[in-house]
Amino acid sequence: MVLSVEGLTKEFGRFRAVDNISLGLERGEIVGLLGPNGAGKTTTIHMMLGLISPSRGTIRIFGQDLAEERESILQRLNFTSPHAAFPGRLTVLENLLVYAGLYGVSDPADRIMDLLERFGIARLKDKPVSRLSSGETTRLGLCKGFLNDPELLLLDEPTVYLDPEAALQVRETLLEMQRLRRTTILFASHNMREVQRTCSRLIFMSHGRIIASGTAIEVTRQILRENREVPALDEVFVHVARRHRHEVLSR
Amino acid sequence: MRYLFTSPGGIVMKFYRVKAVAVRHLYEVRRNPSHLTNMLYWPVMNIVVWGFFTIYLAHRGTPSLVSSLLAAVILWGLFNSFQRDMAVGFLDELWSRNLLNLFGSPLSVTEYVAGLLSVNLIKACIGTVLEAMVALLCYHFNIFPMAVAFVPFVFNLVLFGLAIGIAVTGLIFRYTTKFQVLAWGFAGLLMPLSCVFYPLKSLPVFLSPVAWMLPTTHSFEGMRQALAGGGFSRQHFQWGIALDVAYFLLSVLAFRYLFESARSRGLLVKME
After folding, report:
1. Which regions of B33-80 does DSSP assign to beta strands (E)?
2. Residue B20: which of A74, A86, A102 has the nearest Cβ?
3. pTM score > 0.95 for this model?
């Protein structure tokens, strides 16, 4: 098991953002983490990075306890997040050189150029990050995410500001990594079609709890409680989001 | 508690990560005009203005004050810029929303502080040497022959600046930008009691014990003794270093508490 989470809970005062969740990811799996805003996806990912301390529960990555072996674990994984940015005055290349240094990447210049080419922003390498568009910044985040050739990737809405072509490119890269290196990927997204095309298994969260997990068709059946023949993740998402909103308002 | 603070095995740091942090801040110095202004322009302006004042004092028949004032300006400038840059360096990460990327990497806080410290030491040294050169060229005050006698006191100032920088950074982690003004203002709060431009005996009696508890006071008292030909003050150095160690340990403990509190509240990923 590459990632194993047991009884993970996070409380902010009286608010329980993540409520006793347990999940596991096998090597080479691409797993979608879904749920409406406020479901607890991002908090869960931030706990997996050690950026938020859990109230209860354990996180084991590569067989090691994150609380004890943070450095060696984070050396082998990477992430992208729409909440993270880069120093705006530094150029694209300078930012990536700094992160290559932090991850101890050997031959950083070659690796960086390869990634810049792959994500289509090589021409922007000398441009300050503050002058990039949202989509270009997202691609820079993806370059950072792939810098250390991670064994586990935690992707929080990795295609949120990308046009369809760029999003397709990202999906192809993820699938290629999974095929060639058996990279394990946790993929949080609101884009149901993308998730369905990319992920072999889904975990649906609402109010900090896991309400369904399995393949797209299994999740559809569990949540809609109907014996559907084809996955209907958009419908599932709307169903969960409405119920989520209704419960929030009734509280 | 070990999450972000140290690498496994205690306080062992990876040099390449410390270097990466240093490179990140050197890029910032190169690209950010305010860093260059703080490093080069303000030290020069500071010594120029105080230099004119010392010319006035010399004409009024108080030449002995001149050297101690100019030396105090130079050393206070070093302390002030060093403690400010420690906190501002961290604020640069916060303003650019880079904290999530930084601390989601294998980087430990110890490595981060070490990287920032190395860059800020270089910046403070450049500013100080520049000030000293201006003092020499424009006002014929040569601090360089006294450099050896001043080194222990400069060391004490740097250690105290580091302790303050760590404490202020901890407060910013926990209370976010509400406390960012301390990055620039904390040294100013200490200045009246640090006896920078006047001897300790000038203070009212009831303030003397408070001033005595500041390492800065001992550095400037020691500096004045050396300038007056009284040699190296072992007493002021020892008081200074003992207080520095105590404040440094306190600041590290406070930082750990504030940082863990911020992490528990999810503030690391929400800072703006």
Report:
1. none
2. A102
3. no
- In this complex, is the C-beta atom of A134 within 8 Å of any C-beta atom belonging to chain B? no
> Are the beta carbons of B100 and A88 separated by less than 8 Å?
no
pLDDT of residue B2: 43
Q: Which domain holds residue B165?
A: 3-270
> Which among B2, B23, B269 has the least Cβ separation from residue A46?
B269
Q: Is A55 exposed, middle or buried (0-12, 13-18, 19+ CB in 10 A)?
A: middle
Q: What is the pLDDT of residue B257?
A: 93
In this prediction, residue B204 carries a pLDDT of: 92
- Residue entry with tokens 């990279």: A183
Joined tokens for residue B43: 């030290």
Q: What are phi and psi of A203, to 5 degrees?
A: -125, 120
Confidence of residue B4 (pLDDT cuts 50, 70, 90): very low
Question: How many independent structural domains does chain B possess?
Answer: 1
pLDDT in tens, A70-102: 999 999 999 999 888 999 999 999 999 999 999
CA dist list (Å): B127 to B24, B115, B184: 20, 19, 17
CA distances, A44 to each of A133, A216, B66, B74, B204 (Å)? 28, 21, 62, 50, 57
Least CB-CB distance to A53: which of B3, B20, B92?
Answer: B3
Average pLDDT over residues A50-71: 95
Residues of A in contact with B102 (CB under 8 A): 102
Tracing tokens 């020691």 back to the chain, one arrives at B222
Angle, vertex CA B73, rays to CA B164 and CA B224, nearest 5: 95
What does residue B60 show for φ and ψ, rounded to 5 degrees?
-85, 0
CA dist B193 and B206 (Å) reads 11
Q: Furthest-apart CA pair in chain A: how many Å?
A: 56
